[in-house]
Amino acid sequence: MTTLEISAPASAVAVRPSRPFADVWLISFGHMLTHWYPATFYLLLPLIGNELGLSYGEIGSILTCQFVCGSLSNVPGGMIADAVPRKGLLMALALCWVGAPYLLMGFTHSYWTLLGCAGLVGIGNNFWHPTAIPLLARSFPQRKGFVVSIHGMGGNVGDALAPLAAGFLLASMSWRHVVVVNIVPGILMACAILFFVGGLNLGGEGAAAHRPGAFASGLSARLQDLRELLKNRTLVMISLGSAFRAMTQSALLTFLPLYLARQMGYSPKWVGLCMFSLQAAGFAVTPIAGHLSDRLGRQRIIVSSMAMTMVVLLGMAFAGHSDVFVILIAFLGFFLFAVRSVLQAWLLDATPARQGGTSIGIMFGSQALGAAIGPISGGLLADHYGLSVVFLFLAGTIVVANLFVFFTPTPERRMV
Length: 416
Fold this sequence. Notes:
Elements: H1 22-52, H2 56-83, H3 87-105, H4 111-124, H5 129-139, H6 144-169, H7 175-197, H8 205-208, H9 214-229, H10 233-263, H11 268-296, H12 298-319, H13 323-336, H14 340-349, H15 356-385, H16 388-406
């Protein structure tokens, strides 16, 4: 077993943030909205499934389609994020690209159109993370784990508030009206990102791109960087561990609302409250986990959190329809979502700053592949053995994720 983390060199103490901390909050708020739309959709899935007469497998396949498209587009998205200097423009584009397909879903009655829209969401989301996460890490090198966790906390806020808001909106309007109302905050936030961050140009890459032959040589360099990154054992192991963790999360978010609605008979409002408790716990612990990972080491925080996630999932599998099941939901969020940003910070510790977007693209591509397998696998298990079996499956996937993390070599932190 490798040692946990080598402390930062003394020379790094003088490194100062390159951007005001207010940008962390602005970008994190934008991140909240990239999660708002999918989190709303998870709550709407039981209603959509009932209206269209979909099986558990078909419901799972909608999310699988989204994550497959995300997996295929993540690495190209990361390479584009590294190459394009207008970071604010990319983040605004991502917000619009994620929100528009959900709006289209509100006007369709076709299962196949739902699949197509889900695929578009999977592609669009991949411009946000490879752009925003490396930008924050480069701007605050000494507080990398903390600022990345603040960004992650924004995602938790979106995941928590969206089902809560959607649950109350569904008490007075149809799910189709909810997706139409939902598009407004994304448009407003995209405009704010363009206004405050849109002019940001990192590294002078934009001017170089207009030289004759610059595109071909730049593409060749990016592909060479990609080949080198794929030789990085730490990156590969973290990405594989993240894939199994994402498999756990995607299947959980797909089938937990279905279990609460169909097995426990909860109304949309109460399902929304339960999903809020899951994400609110993650929101509370994410910055704490990021701060502790800067001080105690990434690996220690991740391994312990994943181990507790397995324990809670096993408890849910055996709790049945009791109140204990509902209580365990909050504990699950506390441990499952704590490690998401810490994994991202660890990955950026292990890779060069100029390849941050591509590195995050590789990680998120791996995660999207795992996330694609989760819903369809859980759906098939639920169709044959019942929804309760899905929680045993999730406990197994988080154990595999933890094994990859446990045996990952820990690099020295990069300060620039």
